[in-house]
Input
Amino acid sequence: MTPPMPIAATVAGSDSGGGAGIQADLKSFAAAGVYGVSVLVALTAQNTRGVDAVHAVPPDFVMAQFAALDRDLRPVAVKTGMLLSPELIQVVAEQISTRGWGPLVVDPVMVAKGGDRLLQAEAVDILRDRLLPLAEVLTPNWPEAAALAEVEVVDEGTALAAGRRLLEMGPRWVLVKGGHSPEEPNDLLIGREQVVVLRGTRVLGPHTHGTGCTFSAALTAHLARGRPVPEAAAEAKRYLQAALEQAPKLGGGHGPLQHLPKGY
Output
């Protein structure tokens, strides 16, 4: 008998342009052979040029989505993305904790590719205090790692130091993404007993919208398939590289990736 397809959940905001957020997550889940479900916490009006408007989903409706999925389509792995406000982070952390969903990948989305803020400044502390201790893997980029760890990140050495500081805040693993590096975009997967360097090759051009969402969703999908964190992270890195290299070059700003790349 064929085992059922694993289910992964994304708890994040919607991107009307389809390149990031819930839309990118569900496509990335599908590419990995995982069935995706979602809990929407915010809606955005955006395209490749920027974010025009953001609308928060009422907390009681967020809780209703969790309850509906928990009764029938319970995930075996979950990721969080854009969570917007302290109130929404509080609700999400409580729901994930009390329902025992996990392993959990936390992508601490703070700023959109075009510079628009997607996490209220007052929400950083509660993200750090409530959600990080629940995480199997935390996946910040350099600016996010700097903000959460309250240190400067300017090179791979300081990225490693920030990741180790974040590890002390509760996640089992911290993966500091290297896309902001002036050199090659190597990621650092930092555990309590090892550091793994995930090497990448820079893809030039503006079509990089949703890279963080895509990577963390692919990582979540491979955790849902039962792979250990280092193996899941390496596979997610390979997927992201292919998605970047085959980007469809859509839109007049930061374009989306190819979430179903050929040959992957």
Remarks:
- Residues 229-245 form the longest helix (17 residues).
- The two ends are 26 Å apart (CA to CA).
